[in-house]
Write a structure and sequence with these properties.
The complex is a heterodimer of chains A (183) and B (174). Chain A has eight helices and two strands, in the order αααβαααβαα. By secondary structure, chain A is mainly alpha-helical. Helices cover 72% and strands 3% of the residues of chain A. Chain A has a two-stranded antiparallel ribbon. Chain B is mostly helical and 174 residues long. Chain B is built from nine helices and no strands. Chain B is globular and about 50 Å long. The interface between A and B is large, with 126 and 129 residues.
Chain lengths: 183, 174
């Protein structure tokens, strides 16, 4: 049953990536060139919608959160720094590449998916030398900001949603994005 | 109804609309599966088959991400078919080896170069996801939607180096 749910959730996730256009090289590249903010708009909207849905359910005691991704400051940050290089070079990340593979993109199916597999093998084989050290620094464990900072969860969600709206306003109305250069 | 079908058939939606859909999927994932979304984790479960063949005593593939058709793997299969469904709905499904005009203007039009860079990019991204504790899906989106600080550290790092990399790749054309 869990597999059926996982399959349906995966399909909807892949479908949303396709419709947001994130399976295309230029969408990812242009986010980093700051000429197209679709990636950030898509992500921030999703974050706000989900947190508005799940935080009240949690506060009412109807659900508990699944294991939250662990915070270990240096590892999260260094991982992100390396990740951004690969993502900007290739114009994909694991999720968008798999959804793009489903669209018939052979360059995603063959070298893309092979690259992820090789990367995962390399990581697993070097795990002992890398992860325990980097994850030991400033490790806060599986924690969410409202609990860590002892702030009211509703207030935290409200402030985050407000920040997202201000960001969208700056991008769309104030023209925060850069103009595409004619080549 | 016709209006709805027209909307669904569109190749690209507003990122806000697609984001609302993903947000709802995020709620369903937490409530129904008591789990999170992710993509890089599934590759690790699959890589475990190879990793264990190379080093049978390996810690990671024995205890942390063992081989198997796990929840993240099924999720990957779903993402694949979701992408396919999206492309079929807009009539854009097509087998192709490289289809980005912008890529050609940035890197040149040789297919081998794109294939090589996607392979290298794939390795970098997946390895980095291991260190960070997840990728854009499993950490940035899944962690962010629960307000985990890890997600925002990751997003900050990703944008900083992504922008720097794009600056180098595009040079004068940035």
């Amino acid at each position: 049953m869990t597999y059926v749910i996982a399959l349906i959730l995966g399909v909807l996730f892949g479908f949303s990536l396709n419709k947001a256009g994130l399976t295309k090289y230029h969408k990812i590249a242009n986010q980093f060139r700051l000429t197209d903010f679709a990636v950030l708009k898509f992500m921030m909207t999703a974050l706000v919608v989900t947190m508005i849905g799940v935080y009240p359910l949690r506060e009412l005691g109807l659900i508990t959160f699944p294991t939250v991704p662990a915070t270990y400051i240096v590892g999260n940050l260094v991982g992100g720094l390396i990740f951004g290089v690969g993502m900007a070079l290739a114009g994909f990340c694991p999720g968008t590449a798999v959804a793009g593979a489903g669209e018939g993109k052979l360059d995603y199916i063959v070298p893309g998916l092979l690259g992820f597999l090789v990367g995962a093998v390399l990581y697993g084989l070097t795990y002992d030398a890398v992860f325990p050290k980097i994850s030991a620094i400033a490790n806060y464990g599986s924690v969410v900001l409202p609990d860590l900072w002892h702030i009211n969860p509703y207030l935290a969600v409200f402030v985050f949603a407000l920040m997202a709206l201000v960001l969208f306003y700056l991008i769309d109305r104030m023209g925060m994005h850069r103009k595409e250069k004619k080549s | 109804m016709n209006w709805l079908m027209t909307q669904i058939r569109k190749e690209e939606w507003s990122p806000y609309v697609a984001g609302v859909l993903l947000g709802i999927v995020g709620i369903l994932t937490v409530v129904l599966a008591h789990a999170l979304l992710g993509a890089s984790g599934g590759f690790e479960n699959l890589a475990a088959y190879i990793g264990k063949a190379i080093n049978p005593a390996n810690t990671y593939f024995n205890y942390v991400m063992p081989a198997g058709i796990t929840y993240p793997v099924v999720l990957l299969v779903g993402i694949f078919f979701g992408g396919m469904l999206g492309a079929l709905s807009s009539g854009t499904f097509k087998f192709r080896t490289m289809d980005s005009e912008q890529w050609k203007s940035a890197y040149g039009k040789q297919t081998w170069k794109r294939w090589l860079l996607l392979f290298v990019g794939g390795i970098i991204v997946e390895y980095a996801a291991g260190i960070a504790g997840g990728c854009t899906s499993g950490l940035a989106i899944s962690g962010g939607m629960l307000l985990a600080p890890a997600a925002f550290l990751f997003i900050g790092g990703m944008f900083a180096s992504g922008i720097a990399t794009a600056l180098i790749v595009y040079g004068k054309k940035y």
